[in-house]
Amino acid sequence: MKKWLVLFLMAVFVFVLAACTASEDAGTDSSEEGSADSGGEKTLFMNNGEEPTSFDPSIGFNAVSWGALNNLMEGLTRLDESSQPVEATAESIDVSEDGLTYTFNIREEANWSNGEPVTAGDFVFAWQHMLDPETASPAAFLAYFIEGAEAYNNGEGAVEDVAISAEDDKTFVVKLTEPTEAFLNIITNPSFFPIHEATATENPDWHTEADSFVGNGPFNLASWSHDEDFVFEKNEEYWDAENVNLDKVHWAMVNDPNTEYQMYEAGELDVSSVPAEMSEQLQDSPELGTMDQAGTYFYRYNVEEEPFTNKKVRQAFAYAVNQDDIVQYVTKNGEKPAYGFVSYGFEGPNGQEFRDEAGELVKFDADKAKQLLEEGMEEEGWDELPPVTISYSTSESHQNIAETLQDQFKTALDVDVELQNVEASVFLTEQKEFKYQLSRSSFIHDYADPVNALESFITDSSMNRTQWSNEEFDQLIAEAKAETDSAARWETLIEAEKILMDEMPIFPIHFYNQVQLQKEGIEGILRHPVGYIDLKTADKN
């Protein structure tokens, strides 16, 4: 990764996820009279789509939590306008000659929202909390490049052996197992944010309500009506508060894109996603903006549940999917069809896109799909295919794609599949428990490197959720992480993706992009391709 995400420039449009349940009038606030015109105060009105998973940075490991967390809290580094990591809570960073030891000097003026100083001990506490097996953080694997981290997280080592330490109140030291080019980028992820140790020790539920939340970012959590809305206020204790322009940010929780758009049109939101049926009508709007995003919409098989125990059956269903039709006629927001898992936006040492070099690994082919299904059923001795159910979380867009897949499987394979709609509040938990046979999913990059996408499917990864395991794939990912020759590393990653797409524990549908409407006078919102919204420099005129 010599140059990353060169496709992605400064973002001015904010990403909104539409998923969970909320009433159609969610997002109105009596203190703001439900309007995006807030009078003398600068209040930005946005939609979070659903209730954040958690404001514990070790647990809220998804875009619906990151948008808020990246503004309520701040790590040692922060992504700038070009999505490059720069000093944030850390004023300066020293790196040893061998590239293994990082010393972070924390700003003297860095304070928590309660006025107490941010200390190196708060980072030690937070990172140990993330790695604690009892926390069960889905982000813990991101820290495995730290000496002792993986062993502790797996229950095979002691917390004292994790190579992070506070030399003094303002000096935080980290030792890595090997030089890691993406390290400063990785730790911009909210999972590496500090936690106010005294608050969390006294009240383990500190992150569940506004009145107990303590952050160190540009904004405070002023109020939180669960499943309805939450409100930010400017944090006057933030070290760079003089460059924060907004007084408040009001976040609605509206899961329906049509309702969201109606609120935007009514002046109740400053930013909105675009309903699929409105995409052509709005494509020339001066308020519309589009940019790529590093992520993939895909489906997971449970490879331990028939009929997807058979590789050829998995392949058959994958080749029966017409990705191009889905982006043209269903999602209709200019997404690129996904013929592999790693998205566009990653340039290798030779200057070529990873996606172009890796090629088209799975693409609609009805004849091939039918043949693979017949071969797979013959291998298993099945005269009739075991029943198949597609599971998806509550959302109109997820439902539309699931219904389209149902039609495509019938057309290409002559297979009838059932649909199961599951509330978003329980969907992820049940998917992790392998309760679904074939289920929708999504991946947004945590940091800017193809290995981040592929490492999700190593054996026993919390992100795997397929029960698939492949020793050769695991070995290639391990080699790629240790490889210091950039060209060799790139080839290793390409080979790993080929195995993933041949074994087919998943099949991709489309790569993400961001199509957003934004009111005139809104500026300075940064939307980073790895999934973080940054409102630090946002303004409303």
The CATH superfamily of the largest domain is identified as Periplasmic binding protein-like II
CATH architecture of the largest domain: 3-Layer(aba) Sandwich
How many helices? The count is 16
Radius of gyration from CA coordinates: 23 Å
Report the top-level CATH class of the largest domain. Alpha Beta
What is the fold named in CATH at topology level of the largest domain? D-Maltodextrin-Binding Protein, domain 2
Largest sheet: 7 strands, mixed
Beta-strand content bin:
15-25%
Provide the low-confidence segments as ranges.
1-35
As for the number of domains, it is: 2
Shape descriptor reads globular
* Beta strand count: 23
User: Helicity, in percent?
Assistant: 25-40%
CA(first)-CA(last) distance:
39 Å
Protein name: Peptide ABC transporter substrate-binding protein
Family: Belongs to the bacterial solute-binding protein 5 family.
Organism: Planococcus maritimus
Region (Disordered): 26-49
